[in-house]
Amino acid sequence: MSNNRRKKRIGILTGGGDAPGLNAVIRAVVHTAMNDFNVEVLGLRNGFDGLVEPEDMIVLSHSQVRGILSHGGTILGAANRGNPFSRKTIVNGKEVISDMSEQALDNIDRLELDSMIVVGGDGTLTISKALYDKGAPIVGVPKTIDNDMGGTDVTFGFDTAMRTAAEALDKLHTTAESHSRAMILELMGRNAGWIALGAGIASGADSILIPEIPFDLTPVINRFEERAANGSNFNIMSVAEGSRSKGGKQQYKDDAGLYSGRLGGIGQTIADELRIDSGIDSRCTVLGHLQRGGSPTPYDRWLASLYGAGATRLAMAGAYGMMVNLQGREIGSISLSDAVAQTPKIVNPDGDLITAARGLGIVFGDE
Q1: pLDDT for res 56
Q2: If DSSP codes are grouped into helix, strand and coil, which group holds residue 298?
Q3: Which of 163, 246, 304, 353 has the fewest CB atoms nearer than 10 Å to its CB?
């Protein structure tokens, strides 16, 4: 790295899927770097693509991050298919996969970056750890609406996604009650059911199905019939997309109804089975990418801001190969290696959250 510049320079990129709070992290990095350390911040666009081919960069200043604290998305763009160790390009009309990690490392030197702050989930931070192992001065910031990143109590983006899901379940209550139906909301959550569990508890769902607890529909049907006998002819179900029946597999389906490599469709399958097996009038709503959008909650703005400030201080201290984290109410750090090794962070089927939910009368399909 060059030591002849007047100012040091931090690079920042946002990888993986977008999440509410990314802009708050960027803003916090810029303000902390400039106010506390008199350091420049260079924004790389579109995840690791911007490090492999840094053609569209932006020198970030106070004015450029003004007003973005409450905005969803990311002003730097995000990309979840930009792995420099396995980069896909088209050569003579054919797809070629190449290792471009050395080029990424060269660009860190060429751009005179003293350190890199990488904001992302498990995939992005796994790549960050591999780049650090090759010498990249990287500090990680954990981001995922799924809350399944290891090494931290909470990831920013989760609180907003849970709020969005809970609001959707609240709205489904009224139409479920009006039509005496079972209303199923399919939510994101491949291997961890944090969103479905949190939103389900918050909105008073009758049943919650998550990947950590394989289900049988018999207890769900029994719950519906029990409620009907007590005068409540409707049922609300919060279902994570990665849920699976006992002895079954996760379901993959695309928008055209054809099986593919994309997870989803379990909610509609459950609705169909409820109608066939018990005659329960059932409807499924897939919330999809609405969970990623919108203005971040105050909690996510708070957490993202603390993460951005904390990551900047780690970078300035030369604490590379680390990830900023939340420990209780305090900001700390953990090695990227340990954080990645603890991923995915899943719901404990015997933990306090599940115990409390069962006490509230919520059915998980394993009763």
Answers
A1: 83
A2: helix
A3: 246
CB neighbours (10 Å) of residue 89?
10
What does the alpha-carbon distance between residue 107 and residue 102 come to, in Å, rounded to a whole number? 9
> What's the rounded Cα separation, in Å, for the pair 102 and 109?
11
Give me the residues of the chain with pLDDT under 70, please. Answer: 1-6, 80, 254-261
Give all domains of the chain, ordered by start, each with its CATH number: 9-156+296-341 (3.40.50.450), 163-292 (3.40.50.460)
Q: Report the distance separating Cα 43 and Cα 58, nearest Å.
A: 5
Nearest to 331 by CA among 157, 152, 159, 158: 152
Q: What is the dihedral of CA 154, 155, 158, 160, to 10 degrees?
A: 110
Strands (E), 263-355: 282-286, 322-327, 330-335
Q: Which residue is listed with tokens 């054809």? A: 258
Which residues are CB-neighbours of 137 under 8 A, at least 6 positions away?
1, 108, 113, 114, 115, 116, 315, 318, 320
Which residue is associated with the tokens 């719901």?
Answer: 347
Alpha helix (H) residue ranges in 81-190: 101-110, 122-133, 158-179
Q: What is the per-residue pLDDT for 254? A: 61
Residue 272 catalytic?
Answer: no
- Which of these is catalytic: 146, 159, 206, 300? 146
Q: Which distant-in-sequence residues (6+ apart) come within 8 Å of 345 by Cβ?
A: 147, 148, 149, 150, 192
- Does residue 357 contact residue 201 with C-beta atoms inside 8 Å? yes
What's the burial of 57, exposed, middle or buried (CB within 10 Å: 0-12/13-18/19+)? middle
